Amino acid sequence: MRINNIWEHVSKWTDSKGGLIFILCLSAFLKILAIVALSDKAINPDGVIYISAAQQFAAGHFMQGLSIYPMPLYPLLITFIHFLIPNWVLAARFISSAALVLALIPLYLLTKDLFNRKIAFWACLAATLAPEPNGWAVEVIRGPAFILIFAWAVYFAQRAVRSAKRTDFLLAAFFAWVSIFFRIEGIIFIPFYLFFLVGLAIWKAMERGPFLNGIIIWIAFPLCFILFGFVASGAERVASFNRIDQVMQEAQNLFHLKFLDNYHHIYQQLKALEGSSPYTGLGKQNLVAIARHYMPIIYLLGLLEGYIKVLFPFFVIPLFWGFRCSLLRARVLVLALVIFYLLMVYYYVLKMDFVRTRFLFAPAFLLYPWVGAGLEQIFTFLKQASKPKFLAAVFVIFFIVSPRGKVVHSFGKHDDVIIRTGVWLAA
Fold first, then answer.
1. DSSP label at 140?
2. Cα distances (angstroms) measured from residue 164 to each of 76, 111, 278, 331, 333
3. Where are the alpha helices (DSSP H) in 103-165?
4. Are 289 and 274 spatial neighbours (Cβ–Cβ below 8 Å)?
5. From CA 356, how far away is CA 340, in angstroms rounded?
6. Radius of gyration, CA atoms only, the chain
7. Burial 123-158 (b: 16+ CB within 10 A, else e)
8. Torsion angle, CA of 197/203/205/208, rounded to 10 degrees?
9. Contact 286, 280 (CB under 8 A)
10. Which of 6, 35, 170, 427 has its CA 20 to 30 A from that of 407?
C-alpha cells in the first residue's frame, strides 16, 4: 500500500511546477559539484584561445581579439562575466554550467508543448543526469551557450508552427541567428526551417497565409543583418566576420564534392594496405578490403556510437518506447531537424575523418522529449505492475543511479599532469 502511495505522490509532483524547480536546483548542484571536484583540471586547448580573445576585448583591443578568434560573441560573454567573477577560467566555467542549467527551461517548455508536463519533467531529469553534458560544465567551450540559444530557437519555431503567430516566427528567427554566433553549424536550421514552412504552405492550403508570413520573416531577418553589416563595415569584413567566408567555401566544396577528398585518400591507403595480408594471393575479402568497401557504414556506426554515448546508453530504451507516440506537426519538425542535423555531422565525419562527441549534443538534446515520453510510460507501467518494489528498484538503478555513478567515476579519472607541469615551470 505504501509503495502505491509513493507512486501516486511522485506522479502528481511531476505534473506540477515544483518539478521544474527541483530539476533546475538538482542540475545546478551537479554542475557546482563538477566544478569543485574538477577545479584542478586543465582547460581544453580551445579554451585558451577563447580566454585570450576575451582578454583582448577587456583591454579594448577589439580587432586584436578578432584576429585571435573571429567569432566574438562567446569571448565577449566571457569578458562580461569576468567583471563579476575575476578569475578568467572560473568565469568561463560559470558560463558553461549556467547555460547547461538554463537550457533545461526551453527543453521543459518544448516537451510540455509536444507532450505534457509530466513528460517534460522526465525529459529534463534525463538531460540533467546524462554524464557527458555534466562533464562539460568545467570545459571552456561554446557548446553549452549554443545549446541554450538553439533550444530557444527550436522551441519558438515549433510554437510558431502550432500558433502561426508573427511574434513566434520573429523570436525563432532571432534565436536561430544568435545561435550562429556561438557555433556556425547552427546555420543549418535556417534553410531547414525555411523549407519546412514552404512545405507546410503547400501542404496546408487553408492555413497558407500565416506560413507565408513566417517565410517572409525568415527571409527578411538575415537580409537586414547582412545589409546592416555591409553599411557598417563593408563586404570584405562581413564575409570574414563569424566565419561566414568558411560557410561559403563549404557550400562550394559540397557542390563540387571536394569534401570527399580525404575520404578518397583513406580509401587508397586501405587499398594499398590490402597487400600486407598474410594470405593475399589465396582469397578475397580480407579485413582491410571489407573495411574499404564499407567505409560509409563504418563511419555511420561510429557516429551512432558517439550519439548514444552523449545521450547515455540506458536512455535508448525509453527513447524507443517514446517513439511509439503519434506524430504531430510540431513533433515532425523536431524529429526532422534531428535527422537533418545528424546528416550534417555525418558530412563532417566524411570530410574530416573524426568527430567530437560534443558536436552531437544538439541533436541528442532535442531527443530528450521522447526519452521523457518513454520514461513516463515505463513509470506508468510500474505503477500497475504486480511487483512494483522490484521493478522500481530496477528503474532507479538503470535510469537514475547508473548515469550519476558514471559522472562520479569520471571525477576521479581526470589527469592533472598539465596543471602540475605548469606549476613546476612557473616555479
1. -
2. 34, 19, 66, 16, 14
3. 104-114, 117-129, 131-135, 143-163
4. yes
5. 18
6. 24
7. bbbbbbbbbbbbbbbbbbbbbbbbbbbbbbbbbbbb
8. 0
9. yes
10. 6
Alpha-carbon distance values, 244 to 76, 164, 247, 251 (Å): 19, 30, 5, 11
What is the rounded distance in angstroms from the CA atom of residue 319 to the CA atom of residue 328?
17
DSSP 139: S
| Concatenated DSSP letters of 309-362 | HHH-GGGHHHHHHHTTSPPPHHHHHHHHHHHHHHHHHHHHHHHHS---GGGGHH
Q: Grid coordinates in use for 222?
A: 538575415
CB count within 10 Å of CB 280 equals 13
Cα 123 to Cα 34: distance, rounded to the nearest angstrom: 21
pLDDT tens-digit series, residues 203-259: 876 677 777 888 888 888 777 766 655 554 555 555 555 566 666 666 676 676 677
Nearest CA among 399, 402, 405, 391 for reference residue 6:
391
- Grid coordinates belonging to 254: 559540397
Q: What whole-number distance in Å separates Cα of residue 287 and Cα of residue 419?
A: 42
Contact 167, 217 (CB under 8 A): no
Write down the mean pLDDT value for the chain: 83
Contacts 24+ apart (CB under 8 A), 384-391: 388/3, 388/4, 388/7, 389/3
Q: Is 364 buried (19+), middle (13-18) or exposed (0-12) by CB count in 10 A?
A: buried
Q: Determine the Cα–Cα distance for residues 328 and 336; give it in Å rounded to an integer.
A: 12
Burial class (CB in 10 A: 0-12, 13-18, 19+), 228: exposed
